[in-house]
Amino acid sequence: AGTTAGGEWGHARASNRGAKPDSPDPARNQVLRLLDDLGFAPEPSTDPSTPVRLARCPLLEAAHREPEVVCGVHLGIVRGALAAYGADPADSDLAPFAEPGACLLTLPAHREEEQ
Asked: Per residue in 95-107, is it b (16+ CB within 10 Å) or e — as a string?
């Protein structure tokens, strides 16, 4: 339920930001900007196949208490935004508390990287 609710919210947030699936700016970059605006402080690697470090969580205390719910909502936000930006969200994943001080977010490569 958390992922579904987050997906609806992420899609709405991206749409409110003027999501354009045919934008020359890859969906991945647009989602990272959205996450930065939401307070996650994403730290992407130059290698798009490497997970993105999310160095902050706007709901950290709640995430420690109820990670399945809170982290599910956060993954849903990403997936909903990816869909709004025209990317397939199926390959996205979130590993909560995967390393000290960060969660790891896997995002699909954008079209130019897949070719």
From this structure: ebeeeeebbbbeb
